[in-house]
Design goal:
By secondary structure, the protein is of the alpha/beta class. It has helices at 18-32, 45-51, 55-71, 89-98, 103-107, 110-121, 132-146, 160-177, 218-227, 246-254, 257-268, 273-299, 302-331, 386-399, 431-448, and strands at 4-11, 37-44, 80-83, 152-155, 186-189, 354-359, 365-370, 376-380, 404-408, 413-417, 420-424. Helix content is 48%, strand content 13%. The structure holds tryptophan.
């Protein structure tokens, strides 16, 4: 199946509240369970440094957020879940992208412009208090996305400009170096996702100080927050207007249709606000308590979380490492030809590489890739449709090594095109032989694309 690679970054500042859960965590985890989605979720902890220089806070928030997502049901076997700062290829790519990014593009970024406008308004120097991290934020975010050839990036509306910039930067790099190195990511705005009202009826947000905590403070803090939700002054027995009540909106975000309908009728029939709050608390606690229990168990075992994140970083780097190797090579920062004595250079074949199609025993369509000297480098997967097999070959020829994301298996390689596995190499004797084969495969693909 053609899986869509969906990638998103989670900012690691603060502790998740109910609004984060309903608006981001819950829908993202639900989407990650779809068969046609290859989900990448990561904690944007390098980005967090722009806003905070307090090591304890940075460390604490990262841990709490990892534990929260896991407790809410994120399955790290299924999703590639990692920390940005565990992937050295991200800052590395960020620099490569920095060098093709117009400074003027960054001058126009909303967050930077807002800071400048504020300074100018108050008569300060335009760049007062602005660190270069804030300025470079869009480039680092582009690197987050482009290092993994993500197709879709689910984010809030405030991030649309960042996605446009990521596409701009990718196109500029592709243009300068003459090949489609990067998939152009598409923004995905979740229109129907709930933005929850906070205690005072405005959007639930840390900056309004009106949040209901998800796990922090336990069931007691949850109850206390629910009891502080602002309601109108209608007395018990007086009919209430559910559509004018944030309490009802919160209830609806967590209840099924039938439950919501009966809560609506109860309010219209005059249910007291105090009882309504009890009902909301009961509903929330019923869903949150089991997750909170997992959360507390996880937080108590940071070493276990660490292990999960290391495994996530390993999976992520299996994609980013070969990707960066291709990019380095393309821009002139590849490794030089082996120095005499440091390994045997293979004699270069004079003949061009070739692709050979055939039908396998099941009548399905496959192809092989041979190097110029006849060595078989790749066997494609079986295609039901000969046209699809043809299209994959055509795509390989177009892209060369640039877009062929090679995933490293212990002693074999998997080739992906546009997020879909298209073929694999023979199983090699050891990792060293595999790495040599990787070089060979890249060279051959580039020859095939006529780029070498
Ligand atoms: N800027 C995003 C936010 O504030 C977080 C983020 C960082 C991100 N890197 C990303 C989101 C890459 C999507 C993809 O929400």
């Amino acid at each position: 199946m053609n899986r869509t690679r969906v990638l998103t970054g989670i900012t690691t500042t603060g502790t998740p509240h109910l609004g984060n859960y309903a608006g981001a965590i819950r829908p993202a985890i639900a989407a990650s369970r779809r068969e046609d989605v290859d989900a990448f979720f990561f904690m944007a902890d390098y980005h967090a440094l722009i806003k905070s220089d307090d090591p304890t806070r940075i460390a604490r928030s990262r841990l709490e957020i990892a534990a929260s997502w896991l407790a809410c049901g994120l399955d790290p076997e299924r999703v590639t879940f990692y920390r940005q700062s565990d992937i050295p290829e991200i800052p590395e790519l960020s620099w490569l992208l920095t060098c093709v990014t117009a400074k003027g593009l960054l001058n126009r970024a909303h967050a930077y412009k807002a800071a400048v406008d504020k300074n100018v308004e108050s008569g300060e120097d335009a760049d007062a208090g602005v660190n270069a991290g804030l300025y470079m934020y869009p480039v680092l975010m582009a690197a987050d996305i482009l290092a993994f050839d993500a197709h879709k990036v689910p984010v809030g509306r405030d991030q649309i400009q960042h996605l446009e910039m990521a596409r701009d930067i990718a196109q500029r790099f592709n243009h300068i170096y003459g090949r489609d190195f990067f998939v152009l990511p598409e923004v995905q705005i979740e229109e129907q996702v709930a933005t929850l009202p906070g205690l005072d009826g405005r959007k639930m947000s840390k900056s309004y100080d009106n949040t209901i905590p998800l796990f922090a403070g336990g069931s007691k803090a949850l109850r206390e927050a629910v009891m502080r939700i602002v309601t109108d002054s209608r007395a018990p027995g007086e009919p209430k207007d559910p559509d004018d009540s944030s309490l009802f909106v919160l209830y609806r975000a967590f209840a099924g249709e039938a439950e919501t309908a009966s809560f609506r009728s109860a309010l219209e029939a005059g249910l007291a606000w105090g009882e309504a709050k009890q009902a909301l608390f009961g509903l929330l606690e019923g869903q949150i308590a089991p997750m909170r229990e997992r959360y507390e168990a996880l937080i108590a075992q940071p070493a276990h979380i660490e292990e999960i994140l290391h495994e996530g970083a390993r999976k992520a780097r299996a994609i980013a490492t070969p990707k960066l190797a291709i990019l380095r090579e393309a821009i002139g920062l590849g490794s030089h030809a082996p120095v005499a004595g440091a390994g045997m250079a293979r004699p270069r074949a004079d003949k061009p590489p070739r692709l050979a199609s055939f039908r396998d025993d099941d009548g399905r369509f496959r192809f092989r890739l041979f190097a110029g000297d006849g060595e078989e480098l790749l066997l494609s997967r079986a295609f039901d449709d000969p046209k699809a097999a043809g299209a994959a070959q055509k795509r390989l020829k177009q892209l060369g090594a640039a877009a062929a994301v090679v995933q490293l298996k212990p002693t074999a390689l998997l080739l992906e095109l546009d997020g879909e596995a298209v073929g694999s190499t023979p199983d090699y004797a050891d990792e060293q032989a595999r790495d040599q084969a990787l070089e060979r495969l890249r060279e051959t693909l580039d020859q095939l694309a006529g780029a070498a």
